[in-house]
Specification:
The complex is a heterodimer of chains A (109) and B (116). Chain A contains no helices and nine strands. Chain A has 109 residues and is mostly beta strands. The N and C termini of chain A lie far apart (35 Å). Chain B contains no helices and eleven strands. The N and C termini of chain B lie far apart (37 Å). Chain B has strands spanning 4-7, 10-13, 19-25, 32-38, 45-51, 57-58, 67-73, 76-81, 90-97, 105-107, 111-115. The chains are: A mainly beta (109), B mainly beta (116).
């Protein structure tokens, strides 16, 4: 079973920030938080990962709470092409990525 | 970024035949490759993990004699669906990992298999 909990779906207006939450209350000290997304009928795409500090790259920002039990992926200016299923996962060491059900984000014009 | 390719992107085959799907890491050497399956409106389900030169490790419930995996080199893994049946119709996705911490897995574009 997946070790994370995400809302089933979310909507966001184009141009606004999309904030996608994820709960991972059982995360262990050596596990990273990973975010991937899957646009319809394509392979998943890596977005960002972090351990305990907040991270930012050209795609998104990742905010991890101090207790590391939850995180939020932020797409600062969502576009229609950001419509996808977003997966939050935790992984440590050589573990394999296990996908949960993810959050279906719909960006509306 | 790292690129993983899959071939073919779509394949239609008749029931009882075998189909081979290739997965290649184009610009890096993959010590580990993974095969996933995804049914419509469902999440990805890990089928097996393969390390170059070793036998694949299959997830519980996945028939290793039906889904043959070969990871013959650091850039190529193949999945052969043997004696395919309509219930094997699915979206098959591979991913490759370079083996560095923190690990990042790069996914292929997927192969849509339809068994008639």
């Amino acid at each position: 079973d997946a070790k994370t909990t995400q809302p089933t779906s979310m909507d966001c207006a184009e141009g606004r920030a999309a904030n996608l939450p994820c709960n991972h209350s059982t995360i262990s000290g050596n596990e990273y938080v990973y975010w991937y997304r899957q646009i319809h009928s394509q392979g998943p795409q890596y977005i960002i990962h972090g351990l305990k500090n907040n991270e930012t790259n050209e795609m998104a920002s990742l905010i991890i709470t101090e207790d590391r039990k939850s995180s939020t992926l932020i797409l600062p200016h969502a576009t229609l092409r950001d419509t996808a299923v977003y997966y939050c996962m935790t992984q440590g060491g050589s573990e394999k990525l296990v996908f949960g059900k993810g959050t279906k984000l719909t960006v509306n014009p | 970024g790292a690129v993983v390719s899959q071939h073919p992107s779509r394949v239609i085959c008749k029931s009882g035949t075998s189909v081979k799907i290739e997965c290649r890491s184009l610009d890096f050497q993959a010590t580990t490759m993974f095969w996933y399956r995804q049914f419509p409106k469902q999440s990805l389900m890990l089928m097996a993990t393969s390390n170059e030169g070793s036998k694949a490790t299959y997830e519980q419930g996945v028939e290793k004699d039906k889904f043959l995996i070969n990871h013959a080199s650091l850039t190529l893994s193949t999945l052969t669906v043997t004696s395919a049946h309509p219930e094997d119709s699915s979206f098959y996705i591979c991913s490759a990992r370079a083996g560095q911490r923190p690990y990042e897995q790069y996914f292929g574009p997927g192969t849509r298999l339809t068994v008639t």
